């Protein structure tokens, strides 16, 4: 299937569809409609149909989507139909939790490296994977052809580590460090600032309080 330069908003929704399909297949559900997908995702049925149609015709009008067939197509579109490896840089509480969750729960991505510079965590085992010193990172990236890295380190260290990641061949970074990273144009960075995410939620609590007071 030809790869299309799809809007990032669509790409972010595809793993949600994939997770639902995984659960349905485990329950031996063969067919699902866009309306049912809508009820399970919160996205409109029209939006779901448009998202999927962006990559091809995967369903049958009046019937819906074959769950196994659609999952295979989504795996191919996202790039999860082959062996994928990632590393976590920063083995503090967040990095360890992220590594542990993906080691246990993520069937499509293998965590092959956990790295830190602290003697307190180096040598620690996380679900059988030992935390290594940051100096070992390029060797692991090369061995497993790692293209995606997860960054859970202080902002003061982030740019230096990112420079090493890019130099070693990483082209996509999930960044939890609350700082802007400077990378070449071909490197994609997805920033997640947990503090901002949490603070923004309070807007909705105030909004509900204002509704109740009217």
Question: Order of strands side by side in the largest beta sheet?
Answer: 6-7-5-4-8-9-10
Question: Could you name the CATH class of the largest domain?
Answer: Alpha Beta
Radius of gyration: 20 Å
Q: Calculate the terminal CA-CA distance, rounded to whole Å.
A: 53 Å
Q: Find the CATH superfamily of the largest domain.
A: NAD(P)-binding Rossmann-like Domain
**Helical proportion, percent range:** 40-55%
Mean pLDDT: 91
Which fold name is given in CATH as the topology of the largest domain? Rossmann fold
The ordered string of helix (H) and strand (E) elements is: HEHHEEHEHEEEHEHEEH
Q: Unreliable stretches, pLDDT < 50, 5 or more residues?
A: none
The coarse overall form would be globular
Number of domains: 2
- Structural class label: alpha/beta
The biggest beta sheet reads: 7 strands, mixed
Count of individual helical segments:
8
Could you give the count of β-strands? 10
As a percent range, the share of strand residues is 15-25%
For the record, the CATH architecture of the largest domain stands as 3-Layer(aba) Sandwich
Notes on the structure:
By secondary structure, the chain is an alpha/beta fold. It has two domains: 8-78, Orthogonal Bundle (Arc Repressor Mutant, subunit A); 85-196, NAD(P)-binding Rossmann-like Domain (Rossmann fold, 3-Layer(aba) Sandwich). It contains eight helices and ten strands. The protein has helices at 8-26, 34-41, 45-53, 67-78, 93-105, 137-144, 155-168, 194-213, and strands at residues 31-32, 59-60, 64-66, 85-89, 110-116, 125-126, 129-133, 148-151, 172-175, 188-191. Strands 6-7-5-4-8-9-10 form a seven-stranded mixed beta sheet, with helices on both faces. It has a three-stranded antiparallel beta sheet with strand order 1-3-2. The protein starts with 7 loop residues before the first helix and ends with a helix.
């Amino acid at each position: 299937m030809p790869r299309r330069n799809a809007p990032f908003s669509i790409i972010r929704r595809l793993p949600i569809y994939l997770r639902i399909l995984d659960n349905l297949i485990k329950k031996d559900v063969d067919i699902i409609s866009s309306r049912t997908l809508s009820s399970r995702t919160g996205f409109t049925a029209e939006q779901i149909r448009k998202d999927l149609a962006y990559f091809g015709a995967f369903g049958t009008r009046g019937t819906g989507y074959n769950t196994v067939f659609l999952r295979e197509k989504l795996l191919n579109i996202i790039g999860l139909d082959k062996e994928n490896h990632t590393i976590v840089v920063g083995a503090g509480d967040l990095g360890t939790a992220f590594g542990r969750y993906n080691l246990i729960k993520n069937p499509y991505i293998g965590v092959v490296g956990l790295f830190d510079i602290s003697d307190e965590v180096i040598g620690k085992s996380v679900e059988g994977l030992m935390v290594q010193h940051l100096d070992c990172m390029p060797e692991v990236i090369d061995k497993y052809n790692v293209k995606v890295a997860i960054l859970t380190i202080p902002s003061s260290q982030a740019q230096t580590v990112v420079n090493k990641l890019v130099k070693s061949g990483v082209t996509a970074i999930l960044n939890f460090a609350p700082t802007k990273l400077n990378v070449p144009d071909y490197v994609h960075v997805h920033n997640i600032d947990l503090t901002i995410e949490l603070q923004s939620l309070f807007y909705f609590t105030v909004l509900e309080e204002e509704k109740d007071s009217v």
